[in-house]
Amino acid sequence: MVAVAVAGDIAEAEELREILRQVGIASTIAQSPDDDAVSVLVPEADLEAAQDAIEALTEPDDIIAEP
To answer: Does the N-terminal or the C-terminal CB of the chain have fewer CB atoms within 10 Å?
Structure first.
């Protein structure tokens, strides 16, 4: 599993996971023990498709950091 995005909190991470679910990409989340950031993880083979889905289905003003 590789990080496709870093969300500011669990709620934002779950929104990203829902976008990925809509396009059939499995994902999970991992919270950093050092801060509140939450990484959204996908299988390495799905990384490019996941990035494309997140980019296509989020508003341009949404702040989503790439890992």
So the answer is: C
Structural domains in the chain (count): 1
User: Tens digit of pLDDT for each residue in 3-55?
Assistant: 999 998 899 999 999 999 999 999 999 987 777 789 999 999 999 999 999 98
Tell me the residue ranges of DSSP E strands in the chain.
2-7, 28-31, 38-42
In a domain, 22, yes or no: yes
pTM: 0.82
Instruction: Report the half-sphere exposure of 48 (CA within 13 A, side-chain side).
Output: 1
